[in-house]
Every structure is written in C-alpha cells, then in structure tokens.
Write a structure and sequence with these properties.
single chain; alpha/beta; Rossmann fold; 13 helices
Length: 279
C-alpha cells in the first residue's frame, strides 16, 4: 500500500491536485482513500456531491468512543465510476471551532481513528493520499511525515515566495524525522501563478534542494470553471489540455522511485535567493 502526503500553502491548489491524483489512481483499478487533513472539509468536494461529515465531528457526537463506529460513519465512497473498477473513498479530518483549539488536533484524531477502526485493511485500500495544510510548524500537520505514515511526500508550489517557503518547511520536517520515520520527498508539483520567471525559478529551486519537478500546471480558467462546478477536469473537460497534464502528473507519481532527503534552506537565504528572479 502506498501512502502519499501532499503539502502546500493554503490556496495553492493542492486539493485540486489531490482529487485529480485520486482519479488517476482509480483509473488504474486501485482503491484510493483521499483524506483531507485540514480544519476545513473541502479536500474532497470535487469527488462528492456533498460535503462529508468530518471525523472530528463524528467523534465529538460519540463522546470520542470508537466501539460503536463503523468505517461508513467517517468514510464516504465517491459516486465516480471508473472502467477499470477503481474506487475513491473520501474522509475529512475537520478541526475545532476557530479560536478554541489547535488546527492540527483534527489530523491527529483522524489518523488515530483510521488506525483504530482498521479502515485501510477493511476497505482494501491500495493508495492513501493525505491532503495536508502546508503549515508544518504545528505537530498535527506534520504527523504523516513524523510518524512515517506517508513514505513519499509531494509539495504543490508556485513561484510565490510564500509557496516556496512552505516547500522549505516541509523539507526541514522530512530531514528532521528521516531516521525515525523514513519519509522522502518525491518532488514538486508546480501550479503557475504568473510570477515573473516562474518556471525557471522553481526549476532552479528544485535543483537547489535536490528534488525534481513532477509536473507544471498552467494558470487555467478551465480548471477554475470545473472547480466552480464541483467537478474534476476529467468530468467536465475530458479532452482538454489540462486533463492531459493532470494525467501526466498522475503517471509520473505512479512511476516515481526518485525519493530523496532534500537539502534545507533558511528563511533569509531563501529570500535573498528568490529576490533577483522577480526584479
């Protein structure tokens, strides 16, 4: 079973990437669990007709007792169907009310619940995709790396400084826990934001930290339109350039064996390196 962590700063498009990755794996006949690891419950909105209940809400209603819970209480099967027979299951960790708790708590509770209910075995899952908020300063959000659940990590980024800074943070987490957890960086997925010299910048940055570019997604109204309709491009624009790009990314992730311990870079060094590209 493959367990994949997908990181990136808020709003970078990682949930869109995660949903398309889930589809490309399901197209191969695999059973996929996409697990949203964020206080929001919108990771899987392209895969489901409605927002599912969050694991934290279900646990709260059951006084955090697991005995009466079934996998179907916290995991929702996507209605999307694939000729090869693959299936996508969806789960959302959720989080506490704003201002009253740590956002990473939902991730910790959700992964613990998945383990206690033995859901991966019960559903014969082949691939788990953890869609995780990029703020790995919080221990909850770094849990898939820190505890070794995700053996391969990808970061969705752009040429924006904040996005590259999240890559630097994830790289530090992987390096810090490399002996204990064994997680590796599989590469960067670039979601272009029309930043000056963007593609060259991110290619140079990938080389600097010792990783690869998995794929480049152009700034696209098609993706935005499909997302606004709550659908993947595979559904609403199956013959589009974007559909081909997402399938190419899925193929490269599927085949990827180039997993590395990345080089790390500090904030000040990153800023000094980044600034000449945009001037």
């Amino acid at each position: 079973m493959r367990q994949i962590a997908l990181y990136g700063k808020g709003g970078i498009g990682k949930s869109t990437v995660a949903s398309h990755l889930s589809c490309t794996f399901a197209e191969r006949g695999l059973k996929v669990l996409q697990m949203g690891c964020s206080p929001k419950n919108d990771s899987t909105y392209l895969l489901l007709p409605d927002f599912p209940p969050t694991i934290l809400d279900v646990l709260s209603k059951n006084d955090f007792m697991y005995d009466d819970l079934e996998p179907s209480d916290i995991v929702t099967e996507s209605p999307l169907r694939f000729p090869a027979g693959g299936t996508i299951y969806c789960a959302e960790s959720g989080g506490p009310e704003p201002g009253v708790g740590c956002g990473g708590k939902g991730v910790v509770e959700a992964i613990e619940t998945i383990k206690k209910l033995n859901i991966l075995k019960a559903l014969s899952i082949d691939v788990v995709i953890y869609d995780i908020l990029g703020d790995v300063v919080c221990g909850g959000f770094s849990l898939p790396i820190r505890q070794g659940f995700a053996q391969e990590t990808y970061v969705v980024t752009s040429g924006e400084f904040e996005a590259l800074y999240q890559v630097a943070n994830v790289s530090k987490a992987i390096k810090r826990f490399e002996v204990r957890a064994g997680s590796r960086l599989g590469g960067l997925i670039v979601n272009l934001r029309r930043v000056k010299n963007e593609q060259q910048m991110v290619a140079d940055f990938a080389a600097k930290i010792g990783t690869q570019i998995i794929g480049v997604i152009p700034y696209s109204q098609t993706v935005k339109q499909c997302g606004g309709d709550g659908k993947t491009v595979f559904e609403c624009a199956p013959d589009s350039l974007e559909a081909g790009i997402y399938r190419g990314i899925g193929q490269k992730v599927f085949d990827n064996t180039h997993l590395v311990i990345p080089n790390t870079i500090e904030f000040e060094e990153l800023y000094e390196w980044w600034l000449p590209y945009i001037n």
